Amino acid sequence: MMSSTWALESVTYLTTGMIDAGVADFSVESAICKVYGSETCWRVADEALQIAAGTGYMASYPYERLLRDARINLIFEGTNEILRAFIALSGMQGPGRELADVARAMREPIKGSVSSAISPSAKRAASSDGSG
Amino acid sequence: MTRHHPLLKREAAVFEGYVQELAGGADKVLRKHGRDIAEMQYTQKRTADLAIDLYAVAACIARATHAIEGRGRKGRGGRST
Fold it and tell me: pTM for the complete prediction?
């Protein structure tokens, strides 16, 4: 629980540091912060209640309320599932554009230069496993 | 990684290996699905989980590097965080 929280704190420090340093687009990073933050909060609250065992379920202890309050963070501000789709798709936008350039160069081999057909991502894929 | 403390060499190497795997995996699913990647929700989830965990690893290595440089490898004195 401590190390999860430490990692979460590091993630938020890195992201806020990036924003303060003047990075223009931090939408993916802040989405990662939200997903990772809310899920760490949920997991840690869940484990705290589990450690407190049966008495933790009673309203005389704070654990059940902590868990109920932690649950909503997974839903608010875009559910984590939606944010995951956003992270994956906007993360893949760059490589996707590179691949589109490659495809165009392959369709029109005379018009496009051959060197543009070998994009960084194509080189990566070729070096990784060759199956493409 | 551009900069990390020598003590974290092993962690940085692991991180770099998985970053390459993520880049290769993203490329592979883009080639396989093309524009239909927008419909492939399990693929998106796996890719995003990789990205999230790798971002967390990068943040931890950066913060640990900062802490080691500030406090020395024994962890005494100096600035916190």
Answer: 0.83
